[in-house]
Each structure stands twice: as structure tokens, then as C-alpha cells.
Design a protein that fits this description.
The complex is a heterodimer of chains A (162) and B (165). With 162 residues, chain A is an alpha+beta fold. Chain A has four helices and six strands; from the N terminus they run H-E-E-H-H-H-E-E-E-E. Chain B is an alpha+beta fold and 165 residues long. In chain B, strands 1, 2, 3, 4, 5 and 6 form a six-stranded antiparallel beta sheet that branches. The N and C termini of chain B lie close together (9 Å). Classes of the chains: A alpha+beta (162), B alpha+beta (165). At the A-B interface, helix 2, helix 4 and strand 3 of A face helix 1, helix 3 and strand 3 of B.
């Protein structure tokens, strides 16, 4: 099969970073931001079998002192993590660990989450010379700039020039 | 009905004894529908989670990932915590944090996950209607192999204050 002309002409716009890009102290302001809806909160909570009614029953949540169902904290974590992937780990392998995760404030449907990460550390992999291990401190903020969740994450990362 | 009628009676702060290990009812098979849905909903752009063609071509000549999409670790963690939640989160006031989260093996679509929880610590909170419990959660796959562990700390209702509300 001959390649179509547009395929021959096309120049790839690559995504993601490599080990060499993770100078300790470097800060990444991750793209997009994400407004979380009640529907997403409900689908995430039910698909993951997360049976705490404050995320899926607004009357129960109000009786506990919330103005609305809080967004499931695991969804808050996944959203912050997800937005960080292109900058941090898309050019890598599986993630190794998450440590020191703290939920600082509840997130409610309609709130918008922003994510930011700082490189904490990096080192070559002991077993694979083509890869290294990077560690980042990732923070998630709401639309008022308040910290809602932060954590440290380590990941195997490909080297650009092994 | 009272609010407390909507949750169980055996999972308040007072019920968790340090050292106790719980096997949670119900496993769950990882479906492409939900793995890809959650991965895409949270805008995780790593295509190894949602491009099967890439994974097949990447694995040619190597055994990496067996040519299949790999489930996003954030989804795996959420499944394990979720499966533990009816017993360990139903009467939580708030999730406080997680630590020492490790995923030991990849999860593929069609794998089935099971969850276990150990009570590591029980201590008073700075409010009298609740206490703090630190759990260690474990996860296995359909072969009984451990593929996940991690600690999770929660603020839990005390029966003494909440059971009649």
C-alpha cells in the first residue's frame, strides 16, 4: 500500500517531555483546567463502587453540612494527576508511587481545577540505561487559587539521548 | 427516615480495631468502557491507556505489555479504594489523605481486581464527633497476586454522635 501524499508531507508535532527536561526545581503549569460536573462525579463514584452517600445523595451531603455533594476526592486526585500527564509522564513508563497526598479542601460540582507541578528530584534507573526516575510535587487548585489537593509522584521516564 | 438509616451500623470509628484485616465483598473486572472513560474524562493524554494499535506495534519484538492497552494507575487505585469503600468509607466525614501508594504490576482490560484493608491506626480527632483511622489497603488480581498497596487516612463518624442522626 502506498502512503497517501499528506502522510508523506506530514511533520509530527511530538508531545511530552523526557528525562533531560526535568531539571530539579523546574515548574510546570499544566494545560487546560477542568470544571467538574455533578454528572462526572456521579459516574466516577458509581463506576468505582465508591459507596459513601455524600458524593451521590445531595440530601445526605446537606445533612452533613455541605452545600452540595462534594466531588469524590479520588476524582479530584485523578483530575489533577490526569492534567499533569502530558508535561510529566507521557514520555515515560508506568508510574511507581504516590506519596504524601493530602486533601486540603472539598471540591464541589461547578468548581474548576488547575494543576501545577515542580520537579523534586531525578536519577538514572539502576536497571535500564534508557530510562531514569523522576519525582514531582503536583498541586491542584480551585478557581479561587486555593490548594485543594497535593501529592508527590515518581515515574519511570525515557531519556531523549540514552 | 434518619440519615444514619442510609449507611451500615458496623463501620463507625469505634468499630475498627488496629490489626484487623478485612476482605471486601465483590471484585470488579476492568472494562475498556470505564478505564478509557475515566482516563479520558480526567484528560490523561498517555495514549498507552487508549490506543490499542500503538501498544500492538510497540510490543512487536518485545514482550512489553503484550500488545494491549494498560489501565491508568489512577483508575486502578480508585477501583481498589472503591471496592473497600462500603466497609471503610461509608461513614467517613472526609478523606484526609493517602501515602505510600504502590502499583506492582500493570492491569489490562479483562483483569479482575479484589480489595483488602488492614487497620493500621485509630486515634482521636480534634472534634469529639469523629476519630481518625489510617488504613492500609491491598489489591490483588484474578490470580491472587498482590498488585497494589497504599495507606489512606480518613475522618470517621463516631457512633456515639452520629448513629441516631
Amino acid at each position: 500500500m502506498e502512503e497517501p501524499e499528506f502522510v508523506k508531507k506530514a511533520v509530527l508535532r511530538p508531545k511530552g517531555n523526557r528525562y533531560e527536561d526535568f531539571e530539579p526545581g523546574r515548574v510546570f503549569h499544566h494545560h487546560w483546567g477542568r470544571t467538574i460536573s455533578q454528572a462526572e462525579n456521579a459516574i466516577f463514584t458509581t463506576l468505582t463502587l465508591h459507596f459513601n452517600p455524600q458524593y451521590t445523595n445531595v440530601e445526605f451531603a446537606k445533612a452533613m453540612g455541605h452545600r452540595d455533594t462534594p466531588v469524590n476526592p479520588l476524582l479530584v486526585f485523578n483530575t489533577i494527576f490526569g492534567m499533569s500527564v502530558e508535561d510529566l509522564s507521557e514520555g515515560g513508563g508506568p508510574f511507581l508511587s504516590v506519596d504524601e497526598l493530602i486533601y486540603h479542601k472539598p471540591v464541589y460540582p461547578g468548581d474548576t481545577i488547575f494543576a501545577k507541578s515542580t520537579v523534586v528530584d531525578r536519577r538514572p534507573s539502576g536497571s535500564n540505561p534508557k530510562m531514569g526516575i523522576a519525582k514531582w510535587h503536583t498541586q491542584g487548585f480551585n478557581q479561587h487559587g486555593e490548594l485543594v489537593c497535593d501529592f508527590k509522584r515518581s515515574n519511570l521516564i525515557n531519556k531523549r539521548n540514552p | 427516615m434518619k440519615m444514619s438509616d442510609y449507611t451500615a451500623k458496623d463501620n463507625y470509628f469505634e468499630d475498627f480495631k488496629v490489626g484487623e484485616v478485612i476482605k471486601h465483598a465483590r471484585g470488579k473486572t476492568m472494562e475498556p468502557l470505564e478505564q478509557v472513560l475515566i482516563t479520558n474524562l480526567v484528560m490523561n493524554t498517555a495514549e498507552g491507556h487508549f490506543n490499542e494499535d500503538l501498544m500492538a506495534k510497540r510490543s512487536e519484538g518485545s514482550k512489553f505489555a503484550g500488545g494491549k492497552r494498560v489501565s491508568f494507575g489512577g483508575v486502578n487505585i480508585s477501583f481498589f479504594i472503591g471496592m473497600a469503600s462500603q466497609d471503610t468509607a461509608e461513614n467517613c466525614i472526609a478523606e484526609l489523605g493517602m501515602d505510600k501508594i504502590k502499583l506492582m504490576s500493570p492491569v489490562f482490560h479483562g483483569d479482575t481486581l479484589y480489595a483488602y484493608s488492614e487497620v493500621l491506626e485509630s486515634k482521636p480527632a480534634d472534634r469529639e464527633d469523629a476519630g481518625i483511622i489510617r488504613f492500609k489497603h491491598y489489591g490483588t488480581n484474578q490470580d491472587g497476586k498482590q498488585i497494589f498497596e497504599g495507606e489512606r487516612t480518613v475522618l470517621m463518624k463516631r457512633r456515639s454522635h452520629w448513629a441516631d442522626k
